[in-house]
Amino acid sequence: MKALLDFFTSVRVAITLLIILICASIIGTLIPQERSTQEYLVRYGQLSTLLQRLQFTKLYHSFWFVALLALFAMNIIICTLVRLFPKFRRVFKPKVEIESKNILSLKMKAEFKVGLTLAEARNEIKKELSPRRYRLKEAGAEKKHFFTARKRVLGWFGSDVVHLGILVILAGGIASGLAGFRKDLTFVENRTLPIPGAEFSVRLDKFTTEYYPDGTVKDWKSLLTVIEPGKPLLQKTIEVNHPLNHRGYVFYQSGYGWDWKHPSLEIWVKKKQAPAYLKKLSLKVGEKTVLEGESLELDVLQFIPDFVLDEKNQPTTRSLEPNNPAAFVEGWQGEEKIFSGWVFAKFPDFSRVHSAKETDFSLELKDVNAPNYSVVQMAKDPGVSLIWIGCGLLMAGLFLAFYWPTRELKIILEENQGKTEVIAAGIAIKNREAFQTEFENIINSLRKRK
Amino acid sequence: MSESTFFMLAFILYALAAALYFAFLYSKKEGSAKIGFIIALVGLLLHTLALVLRTVESGHAPFTNMYESLSFLAWASILAFILVEGKYKVRGPGAYLLLIVIALMALASSPLMPKEATPLVPALQSYWLWLHVSVTLLGEAFFAIAFITSIMYLAADAKEKKGETPKSGLTAEKLDSISYRTIAIGFPLFTLGGLVFGMVWAYKAWGNYWSWDPKEVWSLITWFVFALYLHTRIVMGWKGRRSAAIAVIGFLAALFTYFGVNYLLAGLHSYA
User: Fold this and answer.
1) ipTM attached to this prediction
2) N or C: where does chain B have the smaller number of CB atoms within 10 Å of the terminal CB?
3) Domains, in order of start, for chain A
């Protein structure tokens, strides 16, 4: 038990842990995290099994990294507590120094006589230090008087507050990891989705994409309605950086896309022999459309937004962006299929339409459109408030530690033949130079008092 | 006059100030450093104008691509240098800091960095862009000063051990103390801007305050290194060479967080 306590109170152990955490974190940024086994095999070959077994591929959530963080937290708790109790004692039960030699052994010190009685000198010290916001602790003895004066005592606790902040942040991280969850909700307009684990549901009323003049995306906006059992409760437009917060659930605009299963296609039908002939058709996948005035029926069997041939030479889509839209169209006259093949919006001359017999028709895919859907990330994260409290403590602690330096004076007065000898010293862990100036000002001011 | 004119003028003035500071280092005539200081101050004013014009023209904060953020980091470094020199009345570190600033300005104006202001992608349209980036880079500017004073410390310490006086006229002890003081300013700024504001913004924009993204991890690593500096110094009483070495490593980690991560590691922070 003692050995364990020694281990956790050791600053060397804390520093070793810090160095190990630094090294581990670096490794985690060099190895891409949470990819597929195949990708690791390609990247690292034989080594990939070892890396995965050691959990280097999900390092920050690995057993050993979390264990390191736990040890680190333990170390912070114990180191802080061990130092905290003596500090409390020092603050709440201040002691006066009664040995002159202890005061004179300090670096910042002064020794002089003033032509005042002990009572007068005592009064003068109070008059000097009170406006400077020092709090005094006094004790008297025969012909002697002792002072301990200090200000900004909170500064002593700066590092403790920082440590508390870090622990609260870690606790927030644990709460997020255990109880937080996120889910992508995919909405088309007017769709209502129930929120898992909650009593309400959310409907997308309108989704808009705004563009800059140069065509790049400026913003995505989703008008959401929160529906509490039975009735719509509130409506809010969310956009990137402006989520909706309702009953601890936060809704973020996280993405968008097209519903390519339900595209509407504009196809132009032309005749090679009759340049003036043009029919503009609006088609849907799986719907047969009769061309007016002709005995021709068009049937769109398949649509691909980003056409590419895979290694088996089969048509597939490379992405969900409409980079190379293509439609597979069949033309029927009665029971007879007269042509079939792919037409491309970007390459009108490159239609791969095969004709069973000589035909005069040619097709062009002029425009494609699909209902937009909005991807809204739903998050419920009970750790978040702890994180912000921890951040607040962290910053407050740093401020106290660096910019609220505690200052302490120890003074002994000794009356001797109507005069009083003053022995004083200043103690400051940080910001000594500034304190030195104040200390000298105090001493010079006291010397002048008669 | 346009933004790029003011930028170039500032660049020229910084170069001039650097020359004067080096003249001071060799001649020991403080007058030349004093003139250098004033020239750097004028450079800073012109540079500020350039940043303001950039903001007005682009309609957004002047640190959304590498050109802008390099320029801003150079500006913040000059600001930090003027504050530190004004407060501690030390002339030496200015010469080397100005060299770093010149390197940043040269890199910013190199053809490698696209200069045109592009409209903001949705994720960057937030006032947190101002808070997060400016405070973080200001913190890093103070780390840059600590880096320089730490290297100067190492040189001065080596000289003092041989019984010579250091070239800058500053004692090793003084340099060690300035390193600590600049870190005492840089560390809270970096914590606030880099980590706290970063987490708040990540939560607002991405829905998650921490994603173990390489840039996040590297800013944490930087923070750990400076935490190491403070603990070894305050609790274990390390000073001097070992302290200086940690400060140097800390700045290199900050530099990698700022620069290296963008080019070498992929992640969410793909903007700049």
Assistant:
1) 0.93
2) N
3) 2-90 (no CATH), 99-152+405-447 (3.30.2030.10), 163-258+373-396 (no CATH), 264-370 (no CATH)
